Amino acid sequence: MKAPAPARVLQPVSTRLPWLLTVSLLGAGCTDRALEEEARGVPADPGPGPPEDTPDPEDPLRNAVLEPTTALQQSGLAGSIVAATPGVRVLVDGHPAAGVTVGFESQDDYGGAVSVTRAQTDADGVATAQTWELGPYHATYVVVASLPGTDVEPVEFRAATTSAFELVLHGAEAFDPQSREQLDRAVRRWQGAVVNALPSISGTLDTFATTCERQAPGTEVEHRGVHVFVEAEPLLDAAGRGGPCVLRADGSPAFGRVTLDAGIVAEYTHEGALESLMIHELGHVLGVGTLWPDAGLLRDPASPANPNADPYFAGAQARAEFEAVRADSGYEGVAIPVEDRATLEGSVNSHWRESVIGSETMSTSRVSLALAPPLSSMTIASLADLGFYTVNLLAADPWRLPVASLQEGNTTSSSFGCEPFAIP
C-alpha cells in the first residue's frame, strides 16, 4: 500500500491573518480549503443525512398499525354513553403489541368526552377509552385514537345523535358568522332535548310569516317540527322576545318568532352569551311559559287583581325532576314556583321563580355574560307535560336549587329582561 504523502507546510496566504497556515494533506484525502475553514472555526459539513421518512431502525413501533375493535360509526341520544366504547388493537409486524400507550381524544365542539385519554394495550394489544359520553347537543361527535409521538395512521370514531325534531331558523343569514354559530348551537341544544317529529304542516312561507308579523318569500314549505323567524331589532325593555305564532290543531307550535335586541347582539356574541339568550327565547317558542295557560299547567297566576297570588307550574313530569333536587336545598315548598314579582315586567307567570330556582335557562337570572345558566331536567320535562313532545332528559345540564338561606333575595342586577310574545 502506498504510504500517504507527508504534510507540506506553506507560507501564510493572507497578510491580514499572518498566523493562518494552509496545510495540504493531499495524500490523506484532505483539501487545503477544508483545513483553512477548520482554522477559521467554520463547522465541518456533516454530509447528507438519511431521508426524513426513513424509519428509525431502533423504533419498536416503526411497523405498527392501529386496528379498530369497535364500530367506527355509531348513534345515540344526546348526553348518552355510546354503546360500544372506542377501542383499537396495536399490531407490530402483524402481531399484537402489549404495553403500548394509545391516546384517545374527543375532537368535537359539543361537549363529548371519553373517560380515559391514555390507555395501555393489554396482552391482546387492545386499548379502549372505557366510556364515551356524548354532549347535550344534536351533532356528530368524534373520538380519534392514535399512538402519540408516531406517524402511525390514527383511527377516527364517529357517533351521531338521534333526534327527529326539526327546528329551523329563518333570517339567521342576516347575522354575522360568529353570531350565526351561536344561534345554530342553540338550535342544536333543543334538538338534543326534544327528539320526536310533530304532525305535518304545509303552506307558503310568506303566509305563515304574515301571521307572525314577519316577511318571507312565498316558497312552499312542509315540515314536522318548528320553524322560527329570527331577527335583531332595537328593544328598549328586553334583551330578547320569543314565542309561538302559529299553532297546530293539537296545540303544538308550528312557527315561532324571536327578536333579539340589536344593541346587545355584538356584545353577547363576543362574550359567548348569545347562545344562552337564544336557548332561552327558543324555550318560549317551544312553549315554556307561553303555552302553560292553554295547557292548564299555570295555577294561581299573578295579576293586578290577584296581588297575593302564588303562581306555580302543575306538570307532573317537571314536578318529579323538581322533587329530585328540592330536598337537598332545604326549600319547603312542594310545587314548582313561577315568577310572581311585578318588578320583573314581562317575566311574571312565564319564567321559573328566580328567588327559589336561581340561575336556570328559563328563569330570568343572568349571573354573567360569560357564565351560561344550566338547562335543567325540570325545564326539559316541562315540555313533555305540554303533551306533544317526547323529551330526552339525558340532554340536561347538572343542576340543583340554591340552599334555602340563599333563596330569598337572590336576584341579580343582570337579567334576560325577556318578555315572551303573546300568541296571535
Count the E strands. Answer: 22
N-to-C CA distance: 109 Å
- Count of runs of 4 or more consecutive helical residues: 9
Which stretches of 5+ consecutive residues score pLDDT under 50? 1-31, 409-416
Mean of all residue-level pLDDT scores: 85
Main β-sheet, spatial strand arrangement: 4-13-12-7-9
Largest sheet, described in full? 5 strands, mixed
Class by SSE composition? alpha+beta
| Percent of residues in beta strands | 15-25%
The helical percent reads: 10-25%
Radius of gyration: 34 Å
Query: What overall geometry do the principal axes of the alpha carbons give?
Result: elongated
Task: Outline the fold blueprint.
Blueprint: E1 8-9, E2 23-24, H1 32-40, E3 64-68, E4 73-76, E5 87-92, E6 95-96, E7 101-106, E8 113-114, E9 118-120, E10 126-128, E11 132-133, E12 140-146, E13 155-161, E14 167-170, H2 177-193, E15 201-204, H3 205-211, E16 220-223, E17 226-233, E18 240-247, E19 253-261, H4 265-271, H5 274-286, E20 298-299, E21 312-313, H6 316-329, E22 336-337, H7 354-357, H8 377-385, H9 404-407
Parallel strand pairs: 4-13, 14-17, 17-19
Antiparallel strand pairs: 1-2, 3-5, 5-6, 5-10, 7-9, 7-12, 8-11, 12-13, 15-16, 18-19, 20-21, 21-22
Mind explaining what this structure looks like?
- The protein is of the alpha+beta class.
- Helices cover 20% and strands 22% of the residues.
- The chain has helices at residues 32-40, 177-193, 205-211, 265-271, 274-286, 316-329, 354-357, 377-385, 404-407, and strands at residues 8-9, 23-24, 64-68, 73-76, 87-92, 95-96, 101-106, 113-114, 118-120, 126-128, 132-133, 140-146, 155-161, 167-170, 201-204, 220-223, 226-233, 240-247, 253-261, 298-299, 312-313, 336-337.
- Strands 4-13-12-7-9 form a 5-stranded mixed sheet, with no helix packed on it.
- β5 and β6 form a beta hairpin.
- α2 crosses α5 and α6 (316-329) packs antiparallel against α8.
- It is elongated and about 85 Å long.
